[in-house]
Every structure is written in C-alpha cells, then in structure tokens.
Hints:
Strand order of the largest sheet: 1-2-4-3
Strand content: 25-35%
Number of helices: 4
Radius of gyration: 16 Å
Oligomer: single chain
CATH superfamily: Imidazole glycerol phosphate dehydratase, domain 1
Order of helices and strands: EEEHEHEEEEEHEH
Structural class: alpha+beta
Number of domains: 1
CATH class: Alpha Beta
Bound molecules: manganese (II) ion
Helix content: 25-40%
Number of strands: 10
Amino acid sequence: MTPPAPSSEAGAQTHRSAQLQRKTAETDVRLGLVLGATGAGARVTGVGFFDHMLDLLARHGRLDLDVQVAGDLQTGAHHTVEDTAIVFGRALSEALGDRSGIARYGSALVPMDEARASAAVDISGRPFALVEANLPPGATGGFDHELTEEFFRAFANAAKVTVHLSVQAGTNAHHMIEAIFKAFALALRDAIAIDATQAGIPSTKGTLTE
Ligand SMILES: [Mn+2]
C-alpha cells in the first residue's frame, strides 16, 4: 500500500484509513483501506471473479483498497472469500473510528443488463445481513455463487453494520452478483460519507459502536 495521500474529503478532520493483517492456518489476508478515495490499489486473492468484485467495490465505493490474500484454494474459495470479508469489515470499522460525522445510511438500486439489485446499509453497530438472491447454482471464475452471501454475512459481522441486499431481476449469475456488489458499493459510499451537516455521532443513543 502506498502511503496515504492527503485526504480529498472536504470537512474530514483526519484521514480515514486502516491497515490490517489476519493470518490463520487457512488464509493470510493483508488489507489496506482508505475511505473517500478513488478506487486505487490492487486486489489479488487468487480467485479471479472475486478480484473483479473487489475492484468494483473499490471503484464505486470510492475506496482505495489493497488486498493480498494467500488462501487454501485447494479446498475451494470459501475460506479466502470469508476471511477477506472479515478483514475488510474490521478495516472499515477501524477507519470509521467513532462514526462521528458520517451520513450513517445509504441505499442504491443498480441495473446490470437484465439483472437488477438493491442495497441498503446502516452503519448501526449491530451486525445483520439479509441477502435475498436466487442465484443460479454453480461457480464463475473460481467463485461459487453461494459465496456472495458468505461475503456479506462475514463483512456485516466484522464491521457491525446492517446490510440488506436483494436481487430483483436477472438470469445471468455474473450480472446478478455484479449488480449486488455495485449496489452495495454505492450504498456503502453514501453511508460512510462525511455529512457536513452532521454534528457528532449520528445516533440518538449517542453511540454506534456499543
Ligand atoms: Mn463483470
């Protein structure tokens, strides 16, 4: 990861970023994240379609995202996808700090040719993932379609956010999963954006991390 450039976010008091590594017997995940950025960085997980999805997430979520994963792909992509999501979620949580000044909520509806997906995000402090997606069985580019739900569940748990995702239309799994990741990226981008009218932590409870 290149050293963080000066923040491009108007009103941001500090640079919102995180650099994490998580190593287990199954995977070694190194991840660098900068919020409110441009989509820079390299995503190298060993799973081609997953790299493609992380590229979309970074670009449309305005995240600089470096991801290097050495996973036990001989067992399939499951551990690699799940553990990447865990580290991404932890990094997002760390980069958001106490959540001061963020919009908190975001939602998006994205078409991808014949497919259409929606996403709603609440940086709530309460982990929850609802994924409504009747994806065709099988795998694309080494990525089992069922791992889509695994990714978002692991992310929501690690980041302590609420995520609702729905595929409303589609027949092609590549398009349907891509629409989900794009909708999620746009919803997340809005939810984590600095809102200049937001004084302090956007919660009547006074905290989004407890
Ligand atoms: Mn594509």
